[in-house]
Specification:
The strands form 8 sheets. This protein has a 6-stranded antiparallel beta sheet with strand order 29-28-39-30-31-32, with no helix packed on it. Strands 33, 34, 35, 36, 37 and 38 form a 6-stranded antiparallel beta sheet that branches. It has a 5-stranded antiparallel beta sheet with strand order 1-7-4-5-3, sandwiched between helices. It folds into 6 domains: 79 residues, Hepatocyte Growth Factor; 79 residues, 3-Layer(bba) Sandwich (Hepatocyte Growth Factor), CATH 3.50.4.10; 86 residues, Hepatocyte Growth Factor, CATH 3.50.4.10; 90 residues, 3-Layer(bba) Sandwich (Hepatocyte Growth Factor); 79 residues, Hepatocyte Growth Factor, CATH 3.50.4; 179 residues, no CATH class. A hairpin with a 2-residue loop joins strand 15 and strand 16. About 3% of the residues have low confidence. The radius of gyration is 43 Å and the shape is rod-shaped. The protein is mainly beta. It starts with a strand and ends with a strand.
């Protein structure tokens, strides 16, 4: 006989009527089994054999007989042997044991319509085999104890109920044995539920279990491998039904004495929860709406999680990759409940609280982004910041592990990452929280810190702005003259273009010109009083210094058709005969001097024919397409803007 059979002692099993075959004398149970196979064309579901009577008895079987077709008769002269169909498990597979309970279908395990009872079953493995025979090979649960086997006639776990009985153990057959310590956060005195209460059978599965780990396994089985939340109180297991979209934020949290809610913090499909891909804002919290306590747009739990990692997992469980920010500290875990409502960090509001820390999670698309020096220029030992001061303009992240992490934060802080600074000595990352002003950059000296800003030939950063007749010489800005204004007025920072106010301005980056990496071009724009562009010219800045960039050797292009480095007689930056930013075609007499550009830095520079002004500086240029004789055709402009771009 097959090794995978079940012996039921002192019983004779038969079908009703004439659906059985009986023969004697037969010398052994093995011979009886052979006759059963021959008579039933290879199908033999069970045989009953008597050693004392040498009698063989078996039901007729065409391959469709199931155990519920057979009647069990007590007989101390017969033993019954049950045989598994082809493809059924021969041994008890992975299972979860629930001690002290009989699981059954219907109101009682004695309900023979919904349950099958077999006595004199000597092992749990044999009981499992009978269970397979009872449910066409799909055994989900059976209870065994005192050599008696109870089998619910169902393949649907949610049809089960339970009865307490200390002499029995229920075996749950499922591959879902995924519970592991550390996978769930335990919230004592709490229940998470759907519907009005945790006992609402429409939304929950209720069953007894002897441990919370068994409850977790049952949760996985009931919800087809997905267990978000379960509650365990004494021996009762409350499991919210989950069709696949349930998350912790959609459940109701209530105080329930004696209950512990277990909230999933790690799933099989998310073994890596990117715990190394968030950065910290110390003593701050982030929220949407009016406050962190605004439950309409924020999820806030207390005494549920004990670590920042678990808080992130709870947020991730609720919103997946849309979990971008969360706040943790002093037992509080909070995060925006409308996590798809913002795209960038600057969209979230910030508050200050020494007991809390805010965390920002890198977007999946940027988790592997690596900073490239091909995209950014840098300033060593300097922190770059917006010209305005205040927390609304800058965020300082702590515990940022490396430059790439700071870069990723920059990518997600704004729609475009224009500047950031990273200090590896303190693991601090400095970011602007609003759209970085295209013109003005401020710097602070910090040893070891490096400031990065976009290298883009299309992005011109304003170095200086010069105003005619303001009594401040343009060349002073490039000679470290302390009288040249460096504080940026608010009006200039808020305006779309800095020429709208009569302020001469200097970017602090000029003082670090020589150490700037990847300098590309210098652009000079000549404007009228209302900001209209009159003329423009460009210079090569690659190997330049702040004092030699304005030269014939660096000249690249201009609005003039006849200007080239070979045509110009002189290029001056620092001035000659009271002139600066001077591009001369010819010098002869005052009536014959000709050129394209000049700024008079001294009053009455010596040529009354075209320079009799007592106010300085006076800005002159050629308004045509070529050079002009100053005495007969020079024109005035009023604003000079000088920009730099990076390769």
């Amino acid at each position: 006989m097959p090794a995978s059979h079940v012996l039921v002692a002192d019983q004779k099993w038969s079908k009703s009527g004439s659906n059985n075959f009986e023969i004697s004398p037969i010398e052994s149970a093995q011979d009886c089994y052979t006759i059963c196979l021959v008579h039933n064309s290879g199908n033999c579901y069970s045989i009953s054999y008597s050693d004392s009577l040498e009698e063989c008895f078996f039901p007729l079987d065409d391959g469709t007989t199931v155990i519920t077709d057979v009647d069990k008769d007590d007989s101390n002269q017969f033993n019954t042997y049950l045989f598994l169909r082809t493809g059924y498990n021969e041994s008890l597979p992975t299972n979860t044991e629930v001690t002290g309970y009989i699981y059954h279908k219907g109101i009682s395990y004695t309900d023979s319509t919904n349950n099958y009872e077999v006595t004199w079953v000597s092992s749990a493995e044999d009981c499992f085999r009978v269970c397979q025979m009872s449910n066409a090979g799909q055994c989900i649960a059976f209870s065994w104890g005192s050599d008696t086997c109870y089998i619910p006639l169902t393949t649907t776990f949610t049809e089960l109920a339970d009865t307490s009985d200390a002499s029995y153990t229920t075996y749950l057959i499922s591959s879902y044995t995924m519970f592991a310590a550390g996978s769930y956060m335990a919230a004592s005195g709490t229940a998470y539920h759907n519907g009005l209460v945790e006992t609402d059978p429409i939304y929950h599965f209720l069953i007894d279990a002897d441990s919370y780990s068994d409850c977790a396994t049952i949760c996985y089985i009931v919800n087809s491998g997905r267990c978000v939340v379960f509650n365990f109180a004494s021996s009762t297991c409350y499991i919210p039904f989950d069709s696949g979209s349930l998350d912790a934020s959609s459940l109701t949290q209530k105080a329930l004495s004696g209950s512990t809610a277990y909230i999933l913090v790690k799933t099989s499909s998310d073994e890596t929860v990117y715990l190394s891909t968030y950065s910290l804002l110390s003593s701050q919290y982030m929220y949407l709406g009016n406050s962190l306590d605004d439950g309409s747009v924020n999820t806030k739990s207390t005494s549920v999680v004990s670590t920042a990692e678990d808080c992130y997992r709870l947020c991730y469980l609720s919103y997946g990759e849309n979990c971008k920010v969360f706040t943790f500290g002093s037992g509080t875990c909070a995060f925006p409940s409308q996590s798809t409502a913002f795209s960038y960090l600057s969209d979230v509001k910030h508050g200050t609280d020494s007991s809390l820390n805010a965390y920002y999670v890198f977007d999946p698309a940027s988790r592997t982004e690596v900073h490239s020096s091909a995209s950014y220029s840098y300033l060593s030992n300097l922190r770059i910041r917006d010209g305005r001061s205040g927390s609304e303009y800058e965020m300082v992240f702590s515990s940022v592990v490396d430059l790439n992490a700071c870069y990723r934060l920059c990518l997600q802080t704004m729609s475009s990452c224009k500047t950031f600074s990273y200090d590896p000595n303190t693991d601090l990352c400095y970011l602007t929280t609003v759209d970085f002003h295209a013109h003005w950059t401020y710097v602070d000296s910090i040893s070891g810190c490096t400031g990065y800003f976009t290298k883009n030939s299309g992005l011109w950063k304003l170095m200086t702005k010069h105003i005619a007749y303001e009594n401040v010489m343009p060349d002073d800005a490039y000679n470290h003259d302390s009288s040249f204004q460096q504080t940026v007025p608010a009006a200039d920072l808020s305006a779309s273009d800095s020429y709208t106010t009569n302020n001469y301005l200097k970017n602090q980056m000029i003082d670090y010109w020589d150490s700037l990496s990847s300098k590309y071009r210098i652009k000079m724009d000549l404007l009228d009083k209302t900001g209209n562009l009159l003329k423009t010219m460009q210079y090569n800045a690659t190997s330049s210094t702040r004092t030699n960039w304005f030269s014939a050797g660096n000249f690249v292009s201009s609005s003039y058709s006849d200007l080239s480095s070979s045509h110009a007689h002189k290029f001056w930056t620092m001035g000659d005969s009271g002139r600066t930013f001077y591009i001369c075609y010819t010098e002869a007499t005052c009536t014959g001097d000709a050129g394209w550009l000049q700024i008079s830095s001294t009053a009455n520079s010596g040529c009354a024919e075209w320079d009799s002004s007592t106010n300085v500086p006076k800005f002159l240029y050629s308004a045509g397409t070529g050079y002009v004789t100053w005495a007969s055709g020079g024109s005035e402009f009023y604003v000079l803007m000088i920009y730099m771009s990076f390769n």
